[in-house]
Every structure is written in structure tokens, then in C-alpha cells.
Amino acid sequence: MKLLLVLVLLGAAAVDAQSWWSWFGAPAVDDSTPRAAWDGLRVTFGFSPFGNFDRLPRTKEMAVEKGWTLFGSSRCTAGTWRGFRYVKDNDPAVTLLFDKNGYIAGLQMGVRKSELPSDGSIPPQQVTPPWIEDTDTDMWLLTAYFIQPSEICSDGRTEAEYQEEGTGTDLYIQTGPNPTSDIMAIPLQQSDLQGTKWTEGKCFWGMGEFGIHTFTLIVIVPVLLQSLFTKII
Fold it and tell me: pTM (2 decimals)?
């Protein structure tokens, strides 16, 4: 159940530039990027489209002000991922990844092994990857990047780039232990799925249309962006 919850959390990460959320007031702490097409980031999923999406901070400064704390190593290149990890209330189910300059670079979902069945049946072998084992923290991780992972700890983004690009420029899923080479680029337009291993899924209430990718078997890669799959019920 915990694994399913984490999958759904990542699946609900959404851009709010084109959504009805933009009809309401600005957040108390401003990390806005009004010129960018991808000008927001939200998580959490519920059957009602009202009140089930929570805004996430997109700068390290805002995250700290909102009570998010550094999780694990203080090194940007530590572990099998890239970026500085921040969590709320020591819960890794939603983990923010920031680049060396403090701008949002991705999201990571973590599940502690102690919360999974002791027989090792979850996650099943067919989905490892994209679930990657983190032996340092005894967890399973699912990681998505919004910029090229090789740039997160080397250059990062400038304030000007953040204002122009917003949350990110691309979408990558990490598919192995090397975060710079073991990545899969996700098509940014629904039309780009044609002729690939992606097939169109259903449009789910409050979630939008999603794509299904074939690894060893059919696996739902649960990263959905409103700019990518634009049909929201």
C-alpha cells in the first residue's frame, strides 16, 4: 500500500500554469516564475480535483522557510542520485531535489524497507529499475529530474535561467545506479508518444491522461505533467 501511495504521489506532480489553480491567489512565500511555461509544482492525489494538490517549494530558501530539512548526505553528488535532498517531517515519500545553486532539479520518492513486506516481494523485480535500491539509507528510490542530471551538481541554474525556465526544461526518469547515464527522457508532448514503446492510457478523474511504458512487462511510469498530458477532467 505504501508503494502504491508513493507511485501516486509522483504521478500527481503537476504544472499549475494551465490549471484552475492559477485562478486563486499567490502563495504566501513567493518563488514564482511568471514568464515560464512551467511555473508551478504540486503533488498528492485524491478523487476530488478540489483541495488535493499541494504546492511544493521550488527553491531551497523557500523550502527551509516552509519547514523542509536536509535529508541524508550534505553532498550534491552523494549516493545514486544528483542533488541536495529535502524532506518534510523526516518523511522521504516526497523528497525535493535542488541543484548546487538552490533551484528545483527534481523529485524523489523514497520507501523505507522497514515499511515493506519482509519477504522482499515489493517492489517486484520487474520494476527494479526504475526503483533503485539505496543501501546507505536502507530504502527504495524512484527519481525524476526536471533538468539534465549532469548539470545539477556541476553548474546548476542561475536566477535568470530559473525565471525563464521555471520548474525545469525536461523530464527524466532514472533507470539505473548511475544518475547521469542511466536515465530515460520522457516525451514532452502527447503526440511524441507515437512510434515509441509508450502507449496511451486512460484519462483518470483529477489525474489526467497518462502513458504506459514497456520495460520487461508493462509498467506505469507515474510522472504526469499537465503540460505533457493536457486533458484534465
Answer: 0.76
